[in-house]
Amino acid sequence: MTYQLEISFKPVYELVISMHTFLCKSWYKKIDLGMEWPQKVQASLSPEFADQLEKIDTGLEWKLLQLLAYVSPNNDKVDDFLLWLKSLSLGQLYETLSPYIQTFPEDFRAVRDRLHDVLAEWNQVYFKHVDQSTISRLQSAVENISALDGMNAYEQAAQLTNGFCFEPVNGLEKLVLIPQFHFQPGNIVFSFGSLTICYYAARIEPSSDEDDPSLQLYRLLRSLSEKSRLRILRFLRDEPRSFIEVVRHLGISKGITHDHISNLRSAGLLNAHIVGESISAYSLRVERIRQIESELLDYLGINEMF
Q: What pLDDT does 149 receive?
């Protein structure tokens, strides 16, 4: 049992994910952009638009938007996608999405109009001003994947996503991987039965002083600075374990355990085994452990000296 793997990027995808990142307030302290980013964006919004964003349903409606962005035949350019979305009749909406979902909002036309208007406004006030070099680097992330040659779809996905292992379960026919910048270091998964879409952290580093360690190295070393996290790594060394098994092994609360696992996951030290949109188990990502010494020596410049 296997699935088809597609690796794709269109600016429309980053438009949607940039807005997703702003709406996902629980991640503000985790994203590479830092707390300053949402504060700066918030200050640029009109009170009316800020109020609109507060009322967005990030459940079914938002999930439908992810699917529409992917299946649109006009998603090469943001303006073309917005025009396509606005022009769809109710019948065309159902026809476009019915191969992937069976549950639709009650007033689908009103939902579509609301999503279009908010996304169009977000494009005007924020996304049009995003540094185009970021968009170019996301495109390059798709074009420069020759290092994955020889790997199967499962292995390629795990490598690109820094440890997301999409299990080839019955019914999953296609996995689409889309590099994203705004939600780094997190990955976002949407399951539509036979189709799964994963926006994965492209690991694009912001500009910084040359003496600064990369965010990836800093996150990696910081994730190891807590005894419970080391215990988690040791516990997962032999076989995949469920979240509850990790909680019971540590003997601490679910919330604290989740934070520890999140830190280790963001550093790429754990595999997260994905079924649908859920993580069924975690396992140790041995290859990442083996990279620690080399990356630290590279940063210190010791490899160049000896």
A: 78
- Whether the ω angle into residue 185 lies within 30 degrees of 0, i.e. cis, is yes
For the stretch 70-115, pLDDT in tens is 999 999 999 999 999 999 999 999 999 999 988 888 889 999 999 9
- Find the Cα–Cα–Cα–Cα dihedral 99, 192, 116, 41, rounded to 10°: -160
Q: Residue holding tokens 């307030």?
A: 25
What's the rounded Cα separation, in Å, for the pair 247 and 230? 14
Residues 182 and 37: their CA atoms lie apart, in Å, by: 10
> What are the residues whose beta carbons fall under 8 Å from the beta carbon of 265, sequence distance 6 or more?
163, 272, 282
Residue with tokens 């908010």: 118
Burial of 100 (0-12, 13-18, 19+ CB in 10 A): middle
Q: Say what the pTM is.
A: 0.93
Cα–Cα distance, 172 to 130 (Å, whole number): 34
Output the CA–CA distances (angstroms, integers) from residue 99 to 54, 65, 94, 96, 251, in the order listed: 31, 15, 9, 7, 45
What mean pLDDT is predicted for residues 40-64?
91
Query: How far apart are the C-alpha atoms of 88 and 96, rounded to whole Å?
Result: 10
Residue ranges of domains in the chain: 4-201, 215-305
According to the CATH classification, is domain 215-305 in 1.10.10.10? Answer: yes
In angstroms, rounded to a whole number, what is the distance separating the alpha carbons of residues 196 and 154? 13
Residue 199 reports pLDDT greater than 90: yes
Q: Which residues is 198 bridged to in the sheet?
A: 177, 189
- Residue 282 makes CB contacts below 8 A (sequence gap 6+) with 236, 240, 241, 242, 243, 246, 261, 265, 270, 271, 272, 273
Give the whole-angstrom CA distance, residue 208 versus residue 241: 38
Separation between Cα atoms, residue 166 and residue 175, nearest integer Å:
8
